[in-house]
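Posted in: Protein Modeling Q&A

I'm a second-year student putting together a small comparison for a lab meeting, and my supervisor asked me to include a predicted structure for Lachesin isoform X3. I've never done this before, so apologies if this is the wrong subforum. The sequence is pasted below exactly as I got it from our records. If anyone can share the structure token output, I'd also love a short note on what stands out.
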Amino acid sequence: MNSLRKSFGLKMLLSWATFFVDLTVAGATVSMSVSSPSFSGPIQNVTVPVGREAILNCTVTDLGEYKVGWMKADDQTILSLDSRVITHNPRISVSHDEKLHTWQLRIRQLKDSDAGCYMCQINTNSMKKRLGCIDVQVPPNIDDSLTSGDITVQEGENVTLSCKAAGNPPPRIIWRREDGAKLMLRRNSYKVYKVDNIHGMQLILERAQRQQMGAYLCIASNDVPPAVSKRIMLGVEFPPSVRVGTDILGVLEDTEVEMACNIEAYPLPVTLWIKNQQEILVQR
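Accepted answer (user: helix_wrangler)
Welcome! Here is the predicted structure, written out as tokens:
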């Protein structure tokens, strides 16, 4: 009798052990067959002008009970979780297209400070993430503190005019004369040549001459409208030079006569007419 009980008990024990093994294996099989969330592709980077709306699309398949969130990558600021916006920035919103399985991060009235990368996350045990970046296009802006103002020099001195502009993409700087005349430049300090315009942050005028006096325009552009410009006035001081048409005039008595004296100078000189060492007329 005892041997029968032992045999029956051993069979029951083996049966339960077999049941648990089968259950465990079955459970493992079921667990392996369940799909985990995944991204269907990379997030496309976008380039958007300042003031417009930027949209990043994050497509997730087999999300199940997991959640999707957005985060600013550089400072780890949490922006949203599922359809709830966490940040207090009123320009940020999220939307979900169930048919396309796409989660959108939207930033309205884009600022240059919004530029950077954003992270789309799935809250799985081992966090899954994708990065998408926003490039904000900013029109050029000339920095007056780093740009030359009106300047006056003595004839023969060297002059350097500077123009600094910010923007994205980095602006291109072009110099030209306001009156449309060609720029007079020197090569190797001797040979003078003329050009319509010149590129670069600096306009260098070696041994400035009176013919170079006038208004210059620094124009900054980067294909993001509008382009901007600054007017810089260059004055070149030089001593007076006098030219007269005729040294001696013959006229009849009691008739009117006009005498011309052409004076070139900068600043404008005071002109004196003197007869027999006496001042008779002052012109300004």
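A couple of things worth pointing out for your meeting: The domain at 141-239 is CATH 2.60.40.10 (Immunoglobulin-like). The first helix runs from residue 2 to 33.
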